[in-house]
Amino acid sequence: MWAPAGTVDLIALQEDWYQDVAPPDLGALLLEGVLWRDEATGQEWLRSGREIFVLTSGTAHRGLVTCPRLVLGREHAVLCTTTRLAAVEGVLREAGCEGWRTLDDNDGAPRGWVLLCDVLPRRPVQWTDNSDILNGLRPLPQVEIALEGGIRLGYASWLAEHPPSIRVYGDPDHTGAVQIDGHNATASADGCYTAPGWDSVGPHQVWCNATTRTFSLVRREPLPQSWAAFSFPTPGARDGRIAICGPLVRAFTDPQADGEEAATSEIIQVGPANPVLLGSVPGQVLVTHPRPDVRGAQCIVSSPFAPVWAIPAQPLRCDKRENRVRLIGEPWPPGEGSGEVTARITRPSIEQWCSAIRDAGRKGLAVEPADPAVTELWRRYRRYARELWRGLR
After folding, report:
1. What residues pair up with 14 in beta bridges, in sequence order?
2. Strands 157-159 and 211-218
3. What are the DSSP calls for 16-79, one per residue?
4. φ and ψ at 286, to 5 degrees?
5. CA–CA separation, 189 vs 147, rounded Å?
6. CA atoms of 121 and 125, how far apart (whole Å)
7. Rounded to an integer, what distance in angstroms lies between the CA atom of residue 266 and that of residue 27?
8. In 81-100, which positions are buried (b, 16+ CB within 10 angstroms) versus exposed (e)?
9. How many helices and strands in the chain, by DSSP H and E?
10. What's the rounded Cα separation, in Å, for the pair 258 and 231?
11. DSSP character for 262?
12. 125-130-133-138 Cα dihedral, nearest 10 degrees
């Protein structure tokens, strides 16, 4: 994919959704606009530049996506340039918004931009002329029926065991009664509407103030066994592989095996601040590799051993005020453990295990959770590593 900032390789996560892209000049691209062109097909993707973007939770994808305007009763985020901040906050107050959080470039917003989170409009605001960009922050009194959450199978179908939540947004004075399949619906404390039979298999219709929304619930029989739809090497591991099949992510200890017999290792998430995993047995060390193109991304790891600790990559150089030694597994004493030891133990790996513990100890990193038992366990690991290190010398 060609872009003004250079060439970008996009990985399709599904038919109409691609991986995140975080260009270094994101603020300028949002303001001036960007045109991306597929080098192979010539297809183009255009994002026009503007000073204000309205975002809300997606119905088909996790996270925030852009939307045309604020909707009454729905939580949003507003991204705007610093020069527009005062005007934006003024319109939000007119819409009854209060208590929003403001994040600047120190908190991850693009340079020259601010992000207003927890924006919840409570009353409609009259639009000015159609050319005013602030009209996107002036919610209309119209009613909107939303189907949120659940497991979506298609455009308007959900898995019967996981139906969507039915919500109605808009001016309460214009909402009126809500009906589902002709039955009067009632709202729970969190604003979700239900009626008799609303979650049964088949088609359903929601009605409110002449606005309708249809959906269907489908029951799917589970497949007799899983399979490796996508399989790729585990970063930092010589023989391990990870397989992904829909929402199922697991480790493959035997790439030639089929079914559940192939997956025996646990999949864990590792934060970017603590990418080094240590087991209870000397030599059990795994250095993970978080994605460099996504800020703060978690790393999905299949460890050949049961991790006990997660520590920073360079303990002696990290900031002890922010970094910690974290207990992430069972509190096994040093030298002991559970189950079969599958990690390849060598003298260099034992030295690496000892060095990591000794460096974190010399730095004086605090232990998390801050529990006396956890702190004492870490002291035992430090003593064990120090004595083992002397024996290796």
Report:
1. 17
2. parallel
3. TEE-----TTHHHHHHHEEEEE-TTT--EEEEE--SEEEEEE-SSSSSEEEESS--TT--EEEE
4. -135, 120
5. 17
6. 10
7. 39
8. beebbeebbebbebbebeeb
9. 5, 30
10. 13
11. G
12. 10
Beta strands across the sheet bearing 285-287: 285-287, 276-278, 309-311, 324-327, 366-368
With CA atoms as reference, report the closest residue to 306 among 351, 337, 348, 264: 337
Strand pairing class (366-368; 324-327) = parallel
Measured distance CA(278)–CA(273) in Å, rounded? 15
Residue with tokens 């970063």, as numbered in its chain: 235
List average pLDDT for each run of 10 residues in the chain, which is 393 residues long: 60 68 83 84 85 82 81 91 95 93 90 94 82 87 86 86 90 78 91 93 89 89 63 58 61 50 59 88 85 62 84 89 90 75 72 93 92 93 92 78
CA 338 to CA 73: how far, in whole Å?
51
Residue 175 has phi, psi (to 5 degrees) of: -75, -55
Residues β-bridged to residue 95: none
- Looking at the DSSP bridge assignments, the partners of residue 186 are 194
Q: How far apart are CA 349 and CA 360, in angstroms?
A: 17
